[in-house]
Design a protein that fits this description.
This protein folds into two domains: 46 residues, no CATH class; 85 residues, GMP Synthetase, Chain A, domain 3 (2-Layer Sandwich), CATH 3.30.300.20. It is of the alpha+beta class. 25% of the residues lie in helices and 31% in strands.
Length: 164
């Protein structure tokens, strides 16, 4: 359930409630994943949403595909919002991503993104839209690698202490 909170400037800011706790500070996001008995599927939960992930059984997206989906959804959302505000057509907007696996490094070595825009959008606006696409939160996170800390449950969690 969401409920408004009045800010100092009198505007209303919506807050998301998750598991009975109001998430006013959106600077930290937590998701959970649980394995099935065979270890071939995982249930991922983010807030009130769950998703079945797959490890080769073809019953859901693979984890590496979620990276592309996250980048693509962030990009198309950022572009759509910007284009709507500027009065640009969004009906032809499409984002297509492909990742080239580097087997030696066991990761994507290259991610290619192709933006499909309405051909009526002028070239100078298309250049601006390229910059807007690069401003999405996932793109910035991938470009500026975050620290990743892995700890065992029960240990005193150090957590992330700063936002670099």
């Amino acid at each position: 359930m969401c409920r408004p909170k009045e800010e100092e400037d009198g505007k209303t800011k919506w807050q998301r409630e998750s598991k009975g706790i109001c998430m006013a500070d959106k600077s930290t996001t937590t998701v959970t994943l649980e394995s099935n008995a065979t270890g071939s599927q995982f249930i991922a939960t983010a807030g009130e949403f769950s998703l079945v992930l797959d490890r080769g059984e073809n019953t859901g997206p693979r984890s590496i595909e979620l990276l592309l989906l996250a980048l693509g959804s962030c990009t198309i959302g950022t572009l759509s919002t910007y284009m709507s505000r500027k009065g640009l057509p969004t009906d032809a907007l499409r984002v297509e991503l492909s990742g080239k696996l580097d087997p030696a490094a066991n990761r994507y070595g290259c991610i290619e993104m192709i933006l499909h825009l309405d051909p009526a959008i002028p070239a100078e606006q298309q250049s601006v839209l390229l910059a807007v696409a690069r401003s999405c939160r996932i793109h910035k996170t991938l470009e500026h690698r975050p620290d990743i800390r892995i700890e065992l449950a029960g240990e005193t969690a150090k957590g992330c202490t700063s936002a670099a």
